[in-house]
Amino acid sequence: MKIALIQMESSSPEVEENVQKACRHVDAAASAGAELVVLPEFFNVPVFTLTTNKENFRLSEREAGFSIRTMAGKAREHGIYIVATIFEEAGLGLYYDTAMVIGRTGDVEGKYRKCHPAGAGTFEKFFFRPGSEFPVFRIGEWRVGINICYEWRFPEAARSLALKGAELIVMPFAASPKLKLSKALPVRAWENVLYLAACNKVGHEGEWQSGGGSLIVDPRGDVVEEASSTAEEIISAVLDRQLLFQARLENPVYRDRRPEIYSAVVADVGSFEEPS
């Protein structure tokens, strides 16, 4: 399967303008043979979580809103899968940071709601309710999980997906230049022996700057493709199942795991014990 990541800036205050830009990038990716196209976190709006301005709730959309409806049309037009992340209004007073998995027929085949809204340097927790599960989706012949942005800091999130059978983890980002994706993420792919695809925003959106550096990492932890830190661009790679199988033979972590002795990993923080 060929995957394409669309590294883009969403600086316009007009949702339609950002979505139409994304459409042009999707067209280009599909024309180059992409079967799965990934958009960055909040591709349709500028980053809005730097303040607790309640007016920003107007940026939320329902699943059937303009942004996902338009992306669904592109998925159907090209016969591809698209992962598109929006500020979702799930119901009256219920808001999530949600990645929609759109199938080849234009149907939303599933969604992942970010389980770890960020609480340092941003007000995501003011806007978003946390999700509560890590679903794995079937995309073509691949089993695909999703983590969103800040969740890279939680190895448990990626491992949960891996233990559910994920062979690829897609990570939409809206991360600053301070986060060097090429330093932070290859180990996540290597330790879980799977592909990882991190799609970041780039450029300035008001007071926020995104750092680009989108990348695709293989199951051996090698960076296959990496975008610049300054420009809009599309990067792509063909995922190789044989390489995945070989990497898991070389690195048999799933054979050697000892889950019966890992209780501390899921212990409440309040149960930490002082060393004797």
CATH superfamily: Carbon-nitrogen hydrolase
Structural class: alpha/beta
Radius of gyration: 18 Å
**Count of individual beta strands:** 14
Low-confidence stretches: none
Order of helices and strands: EHEHEEEHEEHEHHEEEEEEHH
Largest sheet: 6 strands, mixed
Main β-sheet, spatial strand arrangement: 5-4-3-2-1-14
Task: Give the mean pLDDT.
Answer: 96
What's the level 1 CATH class? Alpha Beta
Task: Using the alpha-carbon principal axes, give the shape.
Answer: globular
Overall number of structural domains: 1
Share in helix: 10-25%
Strand content: 25-35%
Annotated CATH architecture: 4-Layer Sandwich
- CATH fold title: Nitrilase/N-carbamoyl-D-aminoacid amidohydrolase
Alpha-carbon distance between the two ends: 52 Å
Which secondary structure elements does this structure contain, and how are they paired or packed?
Layout: E1 2-7, H1 15-31, E2 36-41, H2 66-78, E3 81-91, E4 94-102, E5 108-113, H3 124-127, E6 136-139, E7 142-146, H4 155-163, E8 168-172, H5 181-184, H6 186-192, E9 195-199, E10 202-205, E11 208-211, E12 215-217, E13 223-226, E14 233-238, H7 241-250, H8 253-256
Parallel strand pairs: 1-2, 2-3, 7-8, 8-9
Antiparallel strand pairs: 1-14, 3-4, 4-5, 6-7, 9-12, 10-11, 12-13
